[in-house]
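To whoever is covering the structure queue this week,

Two jobs came back overnight. Logging them here so there's a record in the thread.

Job A:
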Amino acid sequence: MSALAVICAACGFTVLAVPGLRFSALLLLCLAAFCAALAVLGRLGKRRARRVLLALFGAGFVCFAVLEALVVSGADGDGGGERVSCVVVLGAGVNGTEPSLMLCTRLDAALAYLAGQGDIPVIVSGCQGNGEDISEAECMYRYLTARGVAPERVWKEERATSTRTNFTCSRALMAARGIEPTAPFAYVTNDYHVYRAGVVAGVPQARGVAAKLPRSLYFDALEVNYFIREAFALANELLFRMDLDL
């Protein structure tokens, strides 16, 4: 166990130096601490405490596996193949006035989905955050209209600060523009976020559309990091419904 603790700690500190993988690094460091605790308890002869710790870890791992399976189940969301009343694009980071890679993938997925949906409206949802020169909604509006979407079809929602407010503010905008509360609508977000976003939306008429990162060694590692992190975010949502965007 001592050797495993050292290996996990070394891997954790190594991964910590890679941009975007902080959560995975912290998880590896926690695993290192767990292995070190088991090693110490073993040397002290605390067999009962060691068994309790192992049992708790096993129960936690089973819960994680169930949650991760749910997260993965939404990763191929395609909107359900039916006509919808509108499309909501959930905001992500903006670099100055340019969309981040994460936001670009969402916008490109939205464009692909819109191609088969006629002239339905698009709600772009997101406020202006730290380090952003314009709101996420404004950035998305510019991106979509520059690629042929008629400006009058793109409705800006600039108050949302989280996934939950993305939906509450967007649904209020839908109601104000005459869309029936029970009408199905699609929402676009990254693949790892589709399932939890649907839980946050809390309505059966919401249809998830998954955006995916480009394929490369780094982005594949980033995807794994996000999928693991999302299981913990889903646990938070199911247990506490705290308004966090992990």
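Job B:
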Amino acid sequence: MAAKAVSGRTRIRGVGGCVPDRVVTNDDLAGLMETDDAWIQQRSGIQERRHIGESTGAADLGAVAAREALERAGVDAAEIDCVLFATLSPDYDMPASACVLQERLGVPGVPAFDVRNQCTGFLYGLTTADAFLQSGRYDKVLLVGGEIHSTGLDYTTRGRQVAVLFGDGAGAVVLDRSPDEGRGILSTHLHAEGKFADKLWLEGVAGRDARRLTPEMIADARIFPQMQGRYVFKHAVERSVEVIREAVESNGYAVSDIDLLVPHQANLRINQAVAMTLELPEEKVVNNIQKLGNTTAATIPLALREALDDGRLKEGHLVCLVAFGAGFTWASALLRW
């Protein structure tokens, strides 16, 4: 397929989301491990999260989010040229959840692939979609971030540092090129530092292990995500501040010009520290982790959807998206909405 000449920046034309109906409160988790509402809120700001109630895959939630995004964009699924799915919790080891989602949406034949960058997956996917659209390779791209965390957490006191943070959900955006040259994605910025991989990781089940899964892996909790919380917190704040400044300065703006900051929802305390460092007032920062927890690749599109629905995100706003996560990876995007 030959690329063609194009004009117009990449824009987010429609946003959708989906979270399970089942609400899991901090008090609910306190019945499973040594914790309480005050302990969880003090460390993360989270009050509740959503968990699936029965067998459901990331692509199932993603399909609901995608249909809403398509409807809001006024785009038929048959018009989509490419499907990207950002997730750390795919439906299967293979095939890609993007292919499962493609079948759910009834768009056979178009390319579909997963983006496996965990908390920064949505922004890495956004950058990929932007490159496809700006090269003329495709005209309409569907980008979905979807996660099912609840089935892979350690709900004992041993695992509480991680288990209390995560929720299930999916968010989706439909991307095309804007007829208004002044609107759309102004720039994206991606970074990674692999030497910190073991500070936030899921070591097993893994292809590098000769037997993939053993009783010992289960006994010593290597099948559950592990995090060095204080280490991650420090780097998340520092790198987020850096990459936000990189985004605005690359486009000739100051941080004070940002109308709305939409950060990844990993920890409310991280987002508050970033905003305080940048001297951004609370009303300019979108936070919904209090009620949804960390939905990883879904957090940013779910936050965008909420900001649109409650009127905080308006046409013409200068919007900065930012995320930090496992890898370590960190990323930002600056958009004129």
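Note for Job B: The radius of gyration is 19 Å.

Please reply-all if you pick these up so we don't duplicate work.
Q.
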